[in-house]
Design goal:
Elements lengths: L1 H11 L6 H17 L5 E5 L2 E9 L4 E7 L13 E3 L2 E3 L3 H18 L7 E7 L10 H6 L6 E4 L7 E5 L1 E10 L3 E2 L9 H12 L16 E9 L5 E2 L2 E10 L5 H10 L4 E8 L2 E2 L5 H14 L5 E4 L5 H5 L5 E3 L4 E2 L7 E3 H16 L2
Parallel strand pairs: 3-6, 3-7, 7-17, 8-16
Antiparallel strand pairs: 1-2, 2-6, 4-5, 5-19, 8-15, 9-13, 9-14, 10-12, 11-13, 18-19
């Protein structure tokens, strides 16, 4: 397993927090896979690189999907450190460990007779939306019957993920001299009042098995020009994470009904809702239980991952990856033993068909 750890370290040394760096990481992965005797296809869309590598045969296809791009980090975070059974570094948990395990699994399984096709997808833009890579691949038919995105899940199975709705709301007011605010109408104050009303809307009172409620984040607010003028326009930006089963149109309608402002939809990503009863979940769950000694843990993710591109096409998708912590923060790490366990789980899953 030292070779797997070495592969992870080499990936962590690449600063893939920029598109150029992420493209470099994709190229590194392609070179490594080719050196292991795998067939690799490199693709590019809008300056974003990605690769495909397929093994096995059969009527079913399972997608192993992962991203090499990471959020920004301190220079020291791109120098991997192994300590107390953990590998520290930017992207160690999110999600270069998962990528390394998927690459290693594909390289070791390539000459085996499998009853399923495994399609490895390595992409470079998940952290900025995923539309140029996984979105592009899915739209162009690079799909399967089941997809695993190797996000860090502590070896649990994330069956669901909230939908994401990013919107700007332009709220109007009336300009006046700053010394006579009663003669105007403050657009910033109007926006703040509207935000409070939005937080009381019916869609935020829903709940499901995995989620106590949706969420609304007031991400940005921009209004006003100078001190001595009552602002007559304010733009409020919201990040709404809604539940499986809820509809984007209904949320937008509820917000539109209580404002005279202009709504501008920036991003709308569907929720993920893979069923526990799915045949692929049954196969994977038994493997997780075999290697952990406890029943598989099911849960829902609050954030959004590239799983939603598959879900939008009706393809069951999950997040499933090794254990770690502090992704997007300082002291990000992956538990090395969980990485080894994860690799074995992926291999057993591929052999289970």
């Amino acid at each position: 397993m030292e070779a797997l750890k070495t592969l992870l370290k080499e990936l962590l040394l690449i600063d893939s927090s920029t598109q150029d760096g992420a493209n470099q990481a994709v190229e590194f992965c392609g070179t490594w896979l080719i050196e292991q005797g795998c067939n690799v296809s490199l693709l590019e869309n809008n300056g974003c690189k990605m690769l495909l590598c397929e093994i096995g045969e059969g009527s079913e296809t399972v997608v192993f999907n992962g991203h090499v791009d990471v959020v920004s980090g301190k220079k020291s975070q791109f120098l991997p450190v192994e300590k107390n059974g953990r590998m520290y570094g930017r992207g160690s948990a999110d999600m270069k460990a998962g990528i390394a395990a998927m690459m290693f699994a594909v390289s070791r399984l390539k000459n085996e007779t499998l009853g399923v096709k495994i399609q490895l997808q390595i992409v470079s833009d998940e952290e900025i939306g995923g539309y140029n890579c996984t979105g592009y691949l899915v739209d162009n038919g690079h799909t399967g019957d089941f997809a695993i995105c190797s996000e860090p899940t502590q070896l649990g199975i994330a069956l669901q993920a909230k939908g994401v709705l990013h919107m700007d709301i332009e709220v109007a007011g009336k300009a006046a001299h700053g010394s006579r605010p009663w003669e105007g109408e403050n657009a910033i104050a109007n926006a703040w009042e509207l935000y409070g009303e939005i937080c009381g809307l019916p869609f935020l009172k829903d709940h499901t098995e995995f989620y106590p409620a949706p969420s609304v984040n007031l991400a940005k607010i921009n209004g006003g020009e100078v001190y001595n003028k009552v602002p007559d326009l304010c733009t409020m930006s919201l990040d709404i994470r809604y539940l499986p089963g809820q509809k984007t149109e209904q949320i937008i309608r509820q917000i539109d009904d209580i404002t005279n402002g202009k709504l501008i939809i920036k991003v709308a990503g569907a929720p993920v809702e893979t069923k526990k009863e799915n045949v692929y979940i049954h196969k994977l769950s038994s493997i997780v239980e075999k290697h952990t000694g406890i029943p598989a843990r099911y849960f829902g993710q609050h954030g959004s991952a590239d799983t939603h591109f598959f879900a939008s096409k009706g393809i069951p998708a999950i997040e499933f990856g090794p254990s770690g912590a502090n992704w997007h923060g300082d002291e990000e790490y992956v538990e090395i033993q969980s990485l080894y366990t994860y690799l074995t789980m992926l291999e057993d899953f591929a052999r289970a068909f």
